[in-house]
């Protein structure tokens, strides 16, 4: 690992530790506040319970004292329920004011505008029992009241707050990381695009010189129709195409209508003479199908797949390209088959990932670039079938440029 990569990993680790410390500190401090606030609310609940008991059980006393007790009770606004020994509800506080557990007729002037809903109170009581242990009040007649309560709205929100806070921070960090990573990759892509365009520009001069020297050789040796010089010219033209590919990286390719059979045949004729004569090539199928293509990029697709087949075969074998059509979907199928070593089914998707290669000197970019270039042609590519030791078939699907009208019978 390079020193710069080690430094980056170290900083990532430090930032991760720092984020974890912030998260733990936030949770610990919030839990500290929650515990103290919960203790304060239980004290409030006890005061409310005692004041309610005094109001309901004390004899006639001074009106000012009663008013004071009422004021103390009403200032404590926790949701609470008081039950007797039989767990019957005898009083409640800060629950839904439109509901009641008092049967109609008990006091019509009070209950006639309320909704009799004892199930609501039982549900609230069950929730309060789970929230906190009850506060027990012993009356003078020997009865015992139990006071149940639940946390105030503020305390409930405070319990949730650190998790919401951490979630928002995590979301912000993810968005920030994604944005900065995207910017970094964009800058890297611009650098690579600049390098490829500069490479194409630099190749232009020697390629033009080679064409000139080739013409001088033909004139000097009167070899206008020499096969060797013709193949050299084809190679120089191929270099021009490669330079043209690099010059167009980063630009949207222009697609024009072409006959697929002719385009593939032209490249296969060039490729065949530069490959071992022990590897046979066959092109078959429909010779009339047309599609929208960018010739330099489409030749690159075929080149990568043919080279992939040759590498898979090794010494002796056969590569077949079959062109067919799905008339119903107006799609063209291009099946490129080889008799090579095959691909395990578990690697059908992995072969298109950047860096995946089974060769010691391979970069693992050929099929990845091929898939991207097929997408430029609004198509798709996948491993149609493969068997280890017998061969592989890649399928390219393109939109047909020929339209068919339904016939009436």
UniProtKB/TrEMBL annotation:
A Pfam family: HATPase_c
Domain Histidine kinase: start-end pairs: 198-402
Keyword Transmembrane: yes
EC code(s) of this entry: 2.7.13.3
CDD domains the record matches: HisKA (cd00082)
InterPro entries: HATPase_C_sf, HATPase_dom, His_kinase_dom, HisK_dim/P_dom, Sig_transdc_His_kin-like_C
GO MF annotation, one: phosphorelay sensor kinase activity
Reaction catalysis annotation: ATP + protein L-histidine = ADP + protein N-phospho-L-histidine
Coiled-coil boundaries: none
Membrane-spanning ranges: 13-34, 160-180
Residues annotated as signal peptide: none
Superkingdom of source: Bacteria
Keywords: Kinase, Membrane, Phosphoprotein, Transferase, Transmembrane, Transmembrane helix
EC class (word): transferase
Protein name listed in UniProt: histidine kinase
């Amino acid at each position: 690992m390079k020193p710069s990569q080690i430094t980056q990993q170290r900083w990532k680790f430090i930032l991760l530790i720092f984020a974890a410390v912030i998260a733990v500190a936030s949770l610990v401090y919030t839990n500290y506040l929650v515990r103290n606030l919960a203790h304060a609310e239980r004290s409030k609940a006890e005061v409310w319970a005692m004041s309610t008991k005094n109001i309901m059980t004390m004899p006639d006393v001074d009106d000012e004292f009663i008013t004071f007790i009422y004021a103390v009770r009403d200032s404590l606004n926790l949701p609470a329920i008081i039950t007797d020994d039989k767990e019957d509800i005898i009083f409640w506080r800060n629950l839904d004011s439109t509901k009641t557990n008092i049967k109609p007729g008990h006091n019509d002037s009070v209950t006639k505008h309320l909704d009799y809903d004892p199930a609501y109170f039982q549900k609230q009581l069950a929730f309060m029992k789970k929230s906190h242990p009850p506060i027990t009040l012993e009356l003078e007649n020997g009865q015992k009241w139990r006071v149940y309560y639940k946390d105030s709205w503020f305390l409930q929100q405070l319990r949730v707050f650190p998790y919401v806070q951490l979630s928002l921070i995590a979301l912000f960090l993810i968005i920030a990381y994604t944005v900065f990573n995207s910017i970094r990759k964009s800058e890297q892509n611009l650098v690579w695009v600049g390098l490829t365009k500069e490479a194409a520009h630099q190749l232009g001069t020697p390629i033009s010189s080679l064409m000139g020297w080739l013409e001088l050789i033909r004139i000097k040796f009167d070899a206008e129709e020499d096969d060797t010089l013709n193949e050299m010219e084809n190679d120089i033209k191929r270099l021009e195409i490669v330079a043209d590919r690099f010059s167009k990286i980063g630009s949207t390719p222009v697609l024009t209508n072409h006959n697929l059979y002719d385009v593939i045949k032209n490249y296969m004729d060039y490729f065949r003479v530069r490959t071992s004569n022990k590897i046979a090539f066959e092109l078959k199928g429909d010779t009339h199908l047309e599609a929208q293509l960018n010739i330099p990029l489409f030749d690159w697709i075929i080149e990568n797949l043919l080279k992939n087949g040759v590498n898979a075969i090794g010494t002796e074998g056969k590569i077949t390209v079959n062109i067919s059509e799905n008339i119903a979907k107006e799609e063209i199928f291009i099946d490129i088959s080889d008799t090579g070593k095959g691909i395990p089914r578990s690697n059908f998707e992995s072969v298109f990932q950047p860096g995946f290669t089974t060769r010691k000197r391979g970069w693992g970019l050929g099929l990845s670039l091929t898939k991207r270039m097929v997408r430029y042609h609004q198509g798709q590519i996948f491993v149609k079938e493969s068997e280890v030791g017998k061969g592989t078939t890649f399928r390219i699907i393109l939109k047909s440029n020929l339209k068919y009208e339904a016939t009436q019978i």
